[in-house]
Write a structure and sequence with these properties.
The protein is an alpha+beta fold. It has six helices and ten strands, in the order H-E-E-H-E-E-E-E-H-E-H-E-H-E-H-E. The strands form two sheets. Strands 1-2-6-5-4-3 form a six-stranded antiparallel beta sheet, with helices on both faces. A four-stranded mixed beta sheet has the order 7-10-8-9. Strand 1 and strand 2 form a beta hairpin. Helix 3 crosses helix 4 and helix 4 packs across helix 5. The protein is elongated, with a radius of gyration of 25 Å.
Length: about 280
């Protein structure tokens, strides 16, 4: 636990130097949707991102990926501050009452740090509270566990180059209804470059492989992966008029993971469609 004491002390020194003099919330800032502020505090710094990573100060550190917030609160000049222990417990007790757990509590009269999490939708919301200057300033770092949404896709040229260089390409932008082989409409942007590549290279033949994570029975995963690979083949044949004889579909279920099935990020990597050059 010594590491937390040292960390908290360091924060106190930094906070004493960097204490912002603010009278109102900075423009564009707001509280986290599930966590209000302590009365009398305003937001001095704010950052929210759809996807980022943070190592929470547990022992060892807990690496969490997902929706990210960093909200720094401060007492305006002449305002009344809360005590560091009061601040920390307001947040950690709230998370515990919602089924969560307090993991770290290294807070004293001068300040310190606490970490807790609570369940939400089958995942966790992690919160770290760093308190400085005897409670005059505190920072919430919040990460809601989530896999990154793939927004950038291969172009037809990039796909062709990757297949020539490595012989296979994993696609994560092809999305299906949960537990089904129904391709979602938003998958069109990931499938369009595949169709374009096949039309541009009339001699190219591909094996379409379906892969799943290890959630559920292995036999069911194998069938699901086969059905999804077949659905991709059918989409390419029907949408781009590609000859069916140029494409084969195979399901490999959860037999070839590329990520750790013990966490959501790894499972997301394992749920994929791969193109293999024949």
């Amino acid at each position: 636990m010594r590491v937390f004491t040292v960390f908290a002390s360091t924060l106190l020194v930094v906070g004493a130097i960097a204490m912002p003099a603010v009278a109102q919330d900075v423009e564009g800032s707001k509280d986290h949707p599930m966590l209000s502020r302590m009365p009398g505090y305003v937001i001095g710094e704010y950052d929210a991102q759809d996807f980022s990573v943070f190592d929470f100060a547990t022992d060892p550190p807990t690496h969490v990926e997902g929706r990210y917030w960093r909200i720094e609160y401060a007492v305006p000049d002449g305002g009344k501050k809360a005590g560091p222990v009061q601040i920390a417990r307001n947040y950690t007790d709230l998370l515990v009452t919602r089924g969560g757990k307090k993991v770290v509590d290294e807070v004293g009269a001068g300040g310190g740090m606490a970490v807790a999490w609570m369940p939400a939708g089958g995942k966790k919301i992690w919160v770290q509270i760093d308190i400085n200057n005897n409670g005059e300033m505190y920072t919430l770092t919040v990460v809601e566990e989530a896999a990154m949404e793939q927004k950038v896709e291969f172009t037809a040229m990039e796909l062709a180059k990757a297949l020539n260089d490595t012989g296979s390409v994993a696609l994560y932008g092809i999305l299906f209804d949960t537990g089904k082989a129904t391709i979602k409409p938003e998958s069109a942007k990931a499938l369009a470059p595949v169709g374009d590549m096949l039309k541009n290279q009339a001699s190219l033949k591909l094996e379409i492989q379906g892969h799943t994570d290890n959630v559920g029975a292995a036999a069911a995963n194998l069938k699901l992966s086969q059905d999804r690979a077949a659905a991709v083949k059918a989409y390419l044949v029907q949408t781009f008029a590609i000859g069916a004889d140029r494409l084969s579909a195979v399901g490999l279920g959860d037999t070839k993971p590329v990520g750790d099935n013990k966490n959501e990020d790894g499972r997301a990597k394992n749920r994929r469609v791969e193109l293999v050059k024949k």
